[in-house]
Amino acid sequence: MTILVTGGAGYIGSHTVLTLLEAGYGVVVLDNLCNASLESLRRVERMAGRELAFVKGDVCDQACLDAIFAEWEITAVIHLAGLKAVEESVQQPLDYYGNNVGGSLTLYQAMRSAGVHRLVFSSSATVYGAEAPVPYREDFPRGVPSSAYGASKAMVEQMLEELCSVENAWSVVMLRYFNPIGAHASGQIGEDPRGFPNNLMPYIAQVAAGRRETLSIFGDDYPTVDGTCERDYLHVMDLAEGHVVAMKHLDRTGIQCYNLGTGRPVSVLQMVSRFIAVNGVDVPYLMAPRRAGDLPAFWADPTKAWNELGWRARRCLDSMVRDTWRWQQLNPDGYP
Ligand code: NAD
Ligand code: UFG
User: Fold this and answer.
1) Ligand 1 centre distance from Cα of residue 277 (Å)
2) Residue of minimum CA distance from atom 21 in ligand 1
3) Which residues contact ligand 2 via a Cβ below 6 A?
4) I want to staple 192 with a disulfide (CB 3.0 to 4.6 A). Which of 7, 163, 220, 334 is the partner?
5) Considering only CA atoms, which residue is closest to atom 14 of ligand 1?
6) pLDDT, tens only, 4-18
7) Which residues contact residue 215 at a Cβ distance below 8 angstroms, ignoring those fewer than 6 apart?
8) 47 pLDDT above the threshold of 90
9) DSSP 9
10) pLDDT averaged over the chain?
11) CA 6 to centroid of chain Cα atoms
12) What is the Å distance from ligand 2's center to 231 Cα?
């Protein structure tokens, strides 16, 4: 079976591709490398001891997609390609709608033309919006997204629901990720943000490594356990395995969505303390004003993924911080 993975050279993609290769699938990666390096996939091939096919191209390019479906007999698509910087999306909404919504639309049209109807789509916890109670459950309605990034994910979910309601050949799983962190335990692949890291974990790792002076903790007056925001952090390898499990459930038609999270909230301060304690490093930090758009706390109810897919996050917080630090130490400047 050959799986097309769009965005497969990126952070979640590289771990997912490795897991697919190790499970025996053939893999074709389509990535325009706008936020990734081909080195990630070279390492994935070495780790898996198997080759994959790589196409440098854009998911918005219908001719490129048609050529892929003509060349390979694709069984299913895992669609991860997209832009993901929440703050940037507020400044550049058209880029986000064009890439994330336009790219998805082009991909699904090309899939339909090629007769490929099995899809796993990367969605996000952000689709629940600011008003949803915690923990988030899949039967909650989508909320009002606070950024163009969030809106782009919600729009694609809606597009897929409408499509599946009228074309019954489709088999679609939408995975709502919570906060993936960590790296493969070998330290060979991991998260390699370009420039200033937007997310907490790579920032902590770069401060610990001395690349940045101090971590700013955005807000210490939230109604949470210690005043800092709480999130549901899951190990990127658990998330990667979630894709393979979801793919195996694409034999029944229709559409489903699943939360992929641990179900346990962790505050920013708890995360920093764990990173320091487990890795024996210093992470200087200071309290800073709240970051616009942050919600105080959200985490998953992961029961549906367990009941229906048999998936749950298995790796603990200590593995997440240990693996992040190993990746950071072995690759102080990211991929060469
Ligand atoms: P990433 O930036 O590391 O990976 C995305 C990949 O897609 C990159 O390799 C990039 O080069 C590629 N890409 C972007 N636009 C493309 C296009 N038009 N054509 C071809 N390739 C393109 O990000 P990630 O963290 O691995 O995220 C993967 C997916 O998961 C994204 O859709 C993201 O929105 C979603 N997601 C991520 C998180 C998170 O916290 N990392 C949370 C929820 C959802
Ligand atoms: N934080 C800091 N300092 C930093 C960076 C982050 O205190 O330098 C805090 C944030 O304020 C937040 C928490 O750490 O309270 C987590 O922030 P991240 O930026 O790591 O993650 P978010 O929860 O804001 O967003 C992430 C992804 C989104 C996705 C969302 C839900 O970036 O794409 O998880 O899946 F939508």
Assistant:
1) 31
2) 31
3) 84, 86, 124-126, 177-179, 198-200, 203, 215-218, 229, 231, 268, 291, 294
4) 334
5) 82
6) 999 999 999 999 999
7) 203, 204, 207, 272, 283, 284, 285, 286
8) yes
9) T
10) 97
11) 12
12) 8
Instruction: Please name the residue that has the structure tokens 């005043």.
Output: 227
Q: What is the pLDDT of residues 226-285, one digit of tens each?
A: 999 999 999 999 999 999 999 999 988 799 999 999 999 999 999 999 999 999 999 999
Query: Domain range holding 151?
Result: 2-182+233-261+301-314
Q: Which ligand is nearest to the CA of 175?
A: 1
Alpha-carbon distance 265 to 235, whole Å? 14
For the domain that residue 36 is a member of, what is the CATH number? 3.40.50.720
**Is residue 225 domain-resident?**
no
**What's the CA gap between 275 and 280, in Å, rounded?**
8
Q: Is residue 223 part of a domain?
A: no
Measure Cα distances from 103 to 69, 78, 107, 115, 207 in Å: 16, 13, 6, 18, 35
Phi, psi dihedrals of residue 234, rounded to the nearest 5°: -125, 150
Q: Which residue has the tokens 């709608």?
A: 97
Ligand in closest contact with the CA of 150: 2
Contact 165, 253 (CB under 8 A): no
How confident is the model at residue 251, as a pLDDT?
Answer: 80
Q: Which pair of tokens denotes residue 201? A: 């974990």
